[in-house]
């Protein structure tokens, strides 16, 4: 079973040259350079989506600052101590 799948992309000649130059300088294939760049992009995109979701949750809980986080942590600790 293959662990990769071939895809085809088109780039302007100037971009192809830059990809080739960077790949050569970094000792990577062009495919590896593109894979690395795309994986980085997808990771950053996932992180932004997670931040957006968690920001919405925090606002719903009226958490706006680090002090708010500390307040909630203190409240939870107090509740745990009561048990």
From TrEMBL:
Signal peptide: none annotated. Residues 7-42 form the Ribbon-helix-helix protein CopG domain. GO terms for biological process: regulation of DNA-templated transcription. It comes from the Bacteria. This is CopG family transcriptional regulator. It comes from bacterium (Candidatus Ratteibacteria) CG01_land_8_20_14_3_00_40_19.
């Amino acid at each position: 079973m293959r662990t990769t799948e071939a895809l085809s992309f088109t780039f302007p000649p100037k971009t192809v040259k830059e990809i080739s130059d960077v790949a050569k300088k970094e000792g990577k294939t062009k495919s590896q350079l593109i894979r690395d760049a795309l994986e980085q992009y997808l990771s950053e995109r996932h992180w932004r989506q997670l931040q957006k979701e968690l920001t919405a949750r925090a606002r719903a809980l009226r958490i706006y600052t680090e002090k708010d986080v500390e307040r909630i942590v203190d409240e939870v600790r107090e509740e745990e101590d009561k048990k």
